[in-house]
Design a protein that fits this description.
The chain has two domains: about 160 residues, Rossmann fold, CATH 3.40.50; about 180 residues, Dehydroquinate synthase-like, alpha domain, CATH 1.20.1090. The chain contains twelve helices and eleven strands. The strands form three sheets. The protein has a seven-stranded mixed β-sheet with strand order 1-2-9-6-5-3-4. Strands 7-8 form a two-stranded antiparallel ribbon. A two-stranded antiparallel ribbon has the order 10-11. By secondary structure, the chain is α/β, with parallel strands linked by helices. The structure holds nicotinamide-adenine-dinucleotide and zinc ion. The site of zinc ion (ZN) has 5 residues, from α9.
Length: about 350
């Protein structure tokens, strides 16, 4: 067990790594606690919640809406949730994002505890205080940055997680290694190859994200490096809804690595290594999309017009930098990476 503190604007959020869910019970008042979970987690883990009241939302990105937030508000109202209560989100990134947003906005903020149950939520979504829902056709357009009171990471939840979901979390772990810690990247690579336990690697991923967020909680600078692979990744997710988030981001990371090489930051061998690491885990999905379509989607998504895009590149393996890239340059690189498959 390891406690990782995240020092933020309003205090400290303790992240309890490797702690069983049951350890939470003595820290909460059961009469003033509301669990929020999704249908899948509820079905698998209902006995864990004992007599605590539970609100269950559906599952999948489609429920990440203001309508679902309203369902939670209604449950808060019916049960008399006020600022003496705690909302405990138990689920993947979707449950964590929605419940944390509902808690942040209810009565101008009730306490919130996140218990991530997917690998992606453990190493990424539950860490750093971003919450929110999708609006219209835009992801995470409505939301706040507000740190939860605590996060409890219990890796035993992962025993029931489907492989494809595990890979999505792994993609973010690779991302953390690529942007911040070359040694960590190698360890994740080895664990994947040997099937070694990843509990300790989850803690390290949390530490990497915590150290970045603590330096730039509101994403005015450094925190942007966490978007590595995501600019192209988000465009691909839009073009091809059958792709998992991690698969789309993996293609994005391969493109960013190639671009980093073309810009003279990393060697060809390093760019190839990035692609090989991702391909070895089946993360590098085949995408039939043309480079031009991907670039056009990114252009359309850009809030302001212009010929360049702020893009996260690798200065070296284990260090990232944000660079303005002309769309034309991006299209050429996209074409190279896309024809590799
Ligand atoms: N707030 C942030 O900083 C941040 C960062 C990254 C991603 N996100 C958000 O996270 C969301 C994706 O999160 P996700 O990948 O966890 O998806 P998810 O919450 O949809 O979970 C994936 C699937 O796994 C199921 N599941 C959850 N735990 C399980 C378990 N232990 N065993 C078996 N099945 C389980 C869920 O019901 C769901 O069907 C996206 O909406 C994304 O925008 C937020
Ligand atoms: Zn991601």
């Amino acid at each position: 067990m390891k406690k990782i503190p995240l020092h933020h604007r309003d205090g400290i959020c303790d992240i309890h790594c490797g702690e069983p869910f049951a350890a939470l019970v003595p820290r909460i008042d059961p009469r003033r606690t509301l669990i929020v979970t999704d249908t899948v987690v509820q079905q698998l883990y209902a006995p864990l919640f004992g007599c605590l009241p539970v609100v269950t939302v559906g599952q999948g990105e489609a429920i990440k809406t203001l309508e679902t937030v309203e369902i939670l508000y209604r449950a808060f109202l019916d049960r008399g949730v006020d600022r003496s209560w705690r909302v405990v989100a138990v689920g993947g990134g979707i449950v964590c994002d929605i419940a944390a947003y509902a808690a942040a906005s209810w009565m101008r903020g009730v306490r919130c505890i996140l218990v991530p149950t997917t690998l992606l939520a453990m190493v990424d979504a539950a860490i750093g205080g971003k919450n929110g829902v999708n609006y219209h056709r835009f992801k995470n357009l409505v939301g706040t940055i507000r740190q939860p009171d605590e996060v409890l990471i219990d890796p035993t939840f992962l025993k029931t997680l489907p492989r494809r979901e595990m890979l999505c979390g792994l993609a973010e772990m690779f991302k953390h290694g690529l942007i911040a810690d070359a040694g960590y990247l190698q360890e994740v690579e080895q664990a994947v190859a040997t099937g070694a336990p990843i509990d300790e690697l989850i803690d390290r991923s949390v530490e990497i994200k915590v150290s970045i967020v603590a330096q730039d909680e509101t994403e005015t600078g450094l925190r942007r490096i966490l978007n590595f692979g995501h600019t192209v990744g988000h465009a691909l997710e839009k073009l091809d809804p059958t792709l998992a988030h991690g698969e789309a981001v993996a293609v994005g990371m391969a493109v960013a690595a190639e671009l980093s090489h073309r810009r003279g930051y990393i060697t060809k061998a390093d760019a190839d290594r990035v692609r090989a690491i991702l391909a070895a885990t089946d993360l590098l999905a085949t995408t039939a999309h043309r480079a031009g379509d991907i670039a056009a989607t990114m252009r359309a998504d850009k809030k302001k017009s212009g010929d360049t895009l702020a893009f996260v590149l690798l200065k070296k393996i284990g260090e990232a930098v944000v660079v303005d890239i002309p769309f034309t340059e991006l299209e050429v690189t996209l074409a190279t990476v896309c024809q590799h498959r």
